[in-house]
Amino acid sequence: MNLTWIIIIVIVVLLVALYITIYNSLQKAKVYTDESWSQIDVQLKRRNDLIPNLVETTKGYAKHEKETLENVVQLRNQLTHIPSGDRAETMKVSNQLSDSLKTIFALSENYPDLKANQNFSELQEELTNTENKISYARQLYNSSAALYDQKLLTFPSNIIAKIHGFMKVDYLQTSEAEKEVPKVKF
């Protein structure tokens, strides 16, 4: 075997190794992104499991706030029926549910007995912790999505991504309503 053939074989082996390495890094980035999304799903399920108990506890004290409670239950039910692949709709309804839960927590200020109720306090604390975990999971998802999208856009991984049909993922964004500065009145 002459030297030319040896050089060609080495180059081909190096190119195949580079191709496999880049393909695997794309797969890993996609898996991290999907795993990050599943963390959000886990926390949303946890919150959905806590909501019926919160609503039942609140009903006993705030009988006149029926509309607020029904809105929370409706959004919770809506969230559980969204197909798992529809991330945009999931986050939209989840944000609405977060706002509705804030309304219930604000309600407790008008009902001192409700505010003092141990079940309500524990549920409020659990939901607050869950909301914090959801926020962290969203942040993790966006970081994973950024890394994945970066690989889709940079050379040479963008070529391999295009060959294998890797698709860009959307970031989770804050709604315009959440960006508004709250008005504080005394």
Blueprint (SSEs and pairs):
Elements: H1 3-61, H2 66-80, H3 87-107, H4 112-116, H5 118-153, H6 157-164, H7 176-179
Keywords: Coiled coil, Membrane, Transmembrane, Transmembrane helix
InterPro entries: LemA-like_dom_sf, MamQ_LemA
Family: Belongs to the LemA family.
Largest sheet: none
Q: Report strand %.
A: under 5%
The averaged pLDDT comes out at: 87
**Structural Rg:** 24 Å
Low-confidence parts, pLDDT < 50 over ≥5 residues?
none
* Helical coverage, percent range: over 70%
The run of helices and strands is HHHHHHH
Count of DSSP strands: 0
Give the overall shape: rod-shaped
Oligomer: single chain
Helix and strand content put the structural class at: mainly alpha
Give the N-to-C terminal Cα separation.
89 Å
State the helix count: 7
Care to describe what's here?
- With 186 residues, the chain is mainly α.
- 80% of the residues lie in helices and 0% in strands.
- It contains seven helices and no strands.
- The longest helix has 59 residues, at 3-61.
- The model has no long low-confidence stretch (mean pLDDT 87).
- Its main location: membrane.
Question: Could you list some keywords that capture this structure?
Answer:
186 residues; 7 helices; mainly alpha
Summarize the structure.
By secondary structure, this protein is mainly α.
